[in-house]
Amino acid sequence: MPDSRTPSGDQPSDQTVPKVVVSRISLYLRELQRLQAAGQQTISSGTLGALLGFSDAQVRKDLGFFGQFGYPGVGYRCDELIHAMRDILGTNHRWPVVMVGVGNLGQALLGYRGFGRQNFSIEAAFDTDPSKVGTVIQGLTIRDVAELPEVVRRLGIRLGMIVVPADRAQEVADRLVAAGIDGIVNFAPVTLTLPPHVETVAVDLAIELEQLSFAVTNKFGKPAGEGPAGAQEPR
Amino acid sequence: MPDSRTPSGDQPSDQTVPKVVVSRISLYLRELQRLQAAGQQTISSGTLGALLGFSDAQVRKDLGFFGQFGYPGVGYRCDELIHAMRDILGTNHRWPVVMVGVGNLGQALLGYRGFGRQNFSIEAAFDTDPSKVGTVIQGLTIRDVAELPEVVRRLGIRLGMIVVPADRAQEVADRLVAAGIDGIVNFAPVTLTLPPHVETVAVDLAIELEQLSFAVTNKFGKPAGEGPAGAQEPR
DNA sequence: CGGTGTGAAAGTTTTCACAGCG
DNA sequence: CGCTGTGAAAACTTTCACACCG
Fold first, then answer.
1. Which of A106, A196, B86, B133 could bond to B92 as cystine, CB 3.0-4.6 Å?
2. Do residues A96 and A121 touch, judged by C-beta distance below 8 A?
3. How many structural domains comprise chain B?
4. Range of the domain at B74
5. Touching check for B233 and chain A: CB below 8 Å?
6. The pTM is what?
7. Of residues B111, B115, B214, nearest to A22 (C-beta)
């Protein structure tokens, strides 16, 4: 484009990037990390796409939203692309996170190693149940929700996870917002009402099963021959 | 359309329904169940949409993929629409499900009440760890994965959940497919290769946090400002 | 009225196809 | 060569706007 230097992530980006593109970036990153761990140095858009069930053009277009990262005739260097995608996603630095709700699911998430692998670290966990407050789970002392504002401020935390029952989720969301949080992952099966400056991502496990139920139910009412090989469709 | 009888879910559906429409159907259903529990009899597309952040037209168009369910001037009857949407999603009947992997997360999912609420029931759980096989968790006796085919056949199970580490997920998927499963929810952070007749839904918890990281990082690069995520050190 | 259902228009995302580069 | 980056075309999704209904 402007000149002919070595590829690098310059910023043509000012257009607004579709959400679905960002979710694919996460999938590219995940796959690249696997490839790198397997010793692969470079990869082409075609190969990367095939591993995930996307076209080569889609991979290139997606990356094109953020800059130029490839080498014509060669492909992309895994290490460079991983670094670039972490920059895009904001995960080249560590994110401290708070969790509210340490029931079944909350406790499991506290022990999930996958967060740390992508540079997220649950730094504090809260509950309202007095029988839980003060106990130690996965090395963390559970605190009373009343301490939320102080802890968020002291640790400079911007992200929170809601892992409480549906009927308590909005109240917890309000507390997180009041404490100054910028983004929330909501595992409760309810839609939160939030001020527009707070970002949110919803995960509803029952809905995932419903989507599968629909797909399986309607499998034999579809068009004929379906897609390429058996690559899994991304969410 | 054809005649003027009471609205009901007849099926103009043969067009292929976009996935994003199906995911909104799940959200409509969730909200309707909440409204019904709160005693509401009817709801308009505008009100329902507003509760979820969608336009009235979107709600009507989405429902239009599956039939005619509304009463002009009135809206939709909650009980009817709930039933219709369960029919669409295939959750008016109970789905028995198998789970493979009863680590941290698997055990939490075994205890999650939200599945039962939407008519899914985890009927059997498997692991390969001999120290887990034979133990009872959440009232279920954990079985050896070798028993998968027999149990799936005997209980007529069509859906499976993969809750094992990434490096074991493909092998487990192959076993589920061999056992005759039709759909898989995959919680492992890896893309599965599956035959085209097997449906799949992927849930990657770290990716959800990454999406939030991106949104928060770029919140102030949206309207006019500079520097969304491109910056990278020139090589 | 207040609301649905639905073509047609607008907007968005994906695919195509090809110039250009090492 | 093999592959990227990217306009332009195609496909798809959302919004608009309005006839019609109770």
1. B86
2. yes
3. 2
4. 19-89
5. yes
6. 0.91
7. B214
Q: Which nucleotides of C are covered by protein (CB under 7 A)?
A: 1-7, 12-17, 20-22
- The CATH number covering residue B99 comes to 3.40.50.720
Pairing mode, if any, of strands B159-162 and B95-100? parallel
Decide: B120 and B95 in contact? Cβ < 8 Å: yes
| Cα of A54 to nearest chain B Cα, Å | 12
Residue B77, min C-alpha distance to chain A (Å) = 21
Please indicate if any CB of chain B lies within 8 Å of the CB of A31. Answer: yes
CATH number of the domain bearing residue B81: 1.10.10.10
Last residue of a domain, one of A89, A112, A139: A89
Scan residues 52-91 of chain A and list those with Cβ within 7 Å of strand D: 56-57, 60-61, 63-64, 68-76
Does A204 lie in the same domain as A100? yes
* B132 CA → C2 C1’, Å: 60
Q: Which of B107, B109, B213 sits opposite A95 (nearest CB)?
A: B213
B214-222 long-range Cβ contacts below 8 angstroms, 24+ apart: B214/A22, B214/A25, B214/A88, B214/A89, B214/A90, B215/A183, B215/A199, B215/A201, B216/A90, B216/A158, B216/A159, B216/A182, B216/A183, B216/A199, B217/A89, B217/A90, B218/A17, B218/A90, B219/A182, B219/A197, B219/A199, B222/A16
**Interface probe with A: pick from B213, B218, B222, most Cβ of A within 10 Å:** B213
pLDDT tens sequence for chain A (235 residues): 333 344 554 555 557 999 999 999 999 999 999 999 999 999 999 999 999 999 999 999 999 999 999 999 999 999 999 999 999 999 999 999 999 999 999 999 999 999 999 999 999 999 999 999 999 999 999 999 999 999 999 999 999 999 999 999 999 999 999 999 999 999 999 999 999 999 999 999 999 999 999 999 998 765 543 333 333 433 3
- Within 8 A by CB and 6+ apart from B102, the residues are B110, B125, B126, B127, B132, B137, B142, B163
